[in-house]
Structure formats: C-alpha cells, structure tokens
From TrEMBL:
Species assigned in the record: Sphingomonas morindae
One of the record's GO molecular function terms: transferase activity
Boundaries of every Radical SAM core domain copy: 34-183
Membrane-spanning segments: none
Gene designation per UniProt: hpnH
Record key words, sorted: Iron, Iron-sulfur, Metal-binding, S-adenosyl-L-methionine, Transferase
Name of the protein this chain belongs to: Adenosyl-hopene transferase HpnH
Protein's UniProt keywords contain Ligase: no
Keyword set includes Signal: no
Record domain DUF3463: where: 193-327
Amino acid sequence: MGLPLAVTARIGGYTVKRQLSGKKYPLVLMLEPLFRCNLACKGCGKIDYPGEILNQRLSVQQCMDAIDECGAPAVSIAGGEPLLHREMPEIVQGYLAKKKFVILCTNALLLKKKIDDYRPHPFFTWSIHLDGDKAMHDKAVSQDGVYEVAIEAIELAKSKGFRVQVNCTVFDGADSDRLAAFFDEMERRDVEITISPGYAYERAPDQEHFLNRERTKQFFRDVFAKGAGAKRWHFTNSPLFLDFLAGNQQYQCTPWSMPLRNIFGWQRPCYLLNEGYAKTFAELMEETDWDAYGVGKYEKCADCMVHCGFEGTAAADAIKHPLKLAKLAMRGVRTEGAFAPDFALAGARPAVETYTSHVERELARIRAEKPNAKRHVVAAE
C-alpha cells in the first residue's frame, strides 16, 4: 500500500518547491464536473439544486483548463456522482496524460458497469465512498444495500489491478468500536482509508448529525486508541492531520490548498463554503479575502476540521518541522492528556446566506444561453 514512488516524488517535490517560495499554492484540485447523483444522502449539500442546474456538466476542455490554471499535481473528481458524466473516461485520461495524480470518487453503484472504460495506471486511484460498516454506511446514504455494492466494487477493481481506497466521513452518533472494526476490515482487504469528520453543508437535509470540534477530537481519540495510536491502519491522510483530529495540533485551515472548480466556476473561499465564484483561478487567489475565513473568524467555519481545509496546513507543518512528523510516525497519535489550545469563537463574524442569490444567477444564465432548454430533471445516464 501507499502511493507509488513516482507519484510521491512528483507531489513531494512540487510541495517543497512551492512551500519554499512563500506563496499560496494548491495541493489538490477538487473538481465537481456535475452535481447530479444517483443517491440522496442526507448529509449532502449538492443534490437539492433545481433540475436545470443538475443537468449542467463541465466539458472535457473546461476540466483540462482547470488543472492548467491552478497547476496542482493532483485532482480529486467528485460531484454528484462523476460516473454519470459520459465524458469521464476522457477527462481521466486527459489528466493522466498531463501526469496528474487522479482520484476518482464514486459511490460505486455504477462501477461494475463502467469499470472497463478505465485502465489501471500508477497515477490513478478509485476512491469508494464508504462511511463505515453496512448499517453505518447505508444509513449515511439513505439507501439499503449500497454497502454490499461498494464492497463488491472494491474487490472487482482490485482484481483488475486498480489502486483502491475508501473515503469515510464520520458523523455525530458514530460508534468508536464499530468504526475501529470497520478500519480493521479495510486493513484486511488491503485498502487505504481517507478519513474526515462531516461538515454541516448549509443545504444538507440533515443538520443534526454533524460533529462539533470538541466531540470530533474526543471521538477520534477514542477510535485511534483502539488502533495503537492509528498505526494499525493505513490512511491516505497525513499523520499530522490525524494528530490534529485527535486535538493535538492547533491548526488554522488553508482553504486555497484544495480549491474547487465546479459548474459555477471557482468556488469562494473553499470546497465547503459557497460564498461566491471567481471566473479564473487567478481571480480566486488574488481577490478572495482569505483573512475573513477560518475558525474563530467566521461562524460557518466554527466546527470545521475537514481534510480539504486542514490537510494543506498539516503538509506545510510537515515540511517546516520534519522531526515532529518523524516522531509522530514512530509513536502514533496521542490519545490521552490535554487538548492543544483552540481558537476562540466569540469574535467570529456572523454567517451570511448566499445560496439563493447564486442559484438565481445561475438559472438566469442557463435560461439566457438556452432559452428553449427543457426545465425538467434529466434521468441518470
């Protein structure tokens, strides 16, 4: 397990060079080429757009332009369900031709049907959405039987020589014993794990089951304690990010490290918050008021500890303090003792509602460009 040497060298060299430059830089392009999905997860904020927006797709050229604009060495393709995009094989191949590390995220419902459209490659990984064991995952995605489909897809992809990982989002009410047992099962199957606490998307139907910061820290301590400080399992996350989840690091987020390009444009300020859109990556970087966001700065950021905001911070910390990283790798994540100090929340500016205005502008644009377009929901491809 672990990234191929060529991928590690390419991403590592890029990160060190850009870190030494002292300028803001992206690590991973987060790409959402469509919002449509074949599931309706209660914790998702992407699926309740009007049909005209759900019918939109980024073109192959728009996807290639996005990676050229930002220059990130890796791209994580999500959605919606990216396998619903008819041109997804061409998009993936285009990124591989540019020597980008490609993570294709999927709920796996279409993987058996679509898998022969892809070929194993050292720079390509399937990332299967799996939020724990059968009961945990099927509850998270609001549909029975999805866990078995995902497990079957993992075994199929591995049998065909693909690199496979799972992405696991943890919600409030999760049981630490069951999650640890799930990690053991993934280890038995020789599958790496990308772990992250859930984030309260403003438009998610279920707003009651997202972890706050204190519960996040204690929960991950409880889980990691069952796995020798997390050393028993193989994560794609950096050790310092795992240490942050357990409350041992005081990190502010690095929102530009994983910028999002979707059908609206470059989302401001980050993958999780929709506070406006830039037409270009340069505009996103130069005109976003980055100091206005973060824990203790903005109410919407108060409980966020998600990997797409804090992995970049952990990566920069690892470059600055390699001995800290080495010690952590040897001893594992600390699961007892006092938490590291956190940021005060009292002075954060109030949250602003922006969803309605974004939707209205996008609908007006679509109708102006395609005045005779059908406005009903298109069936899944």
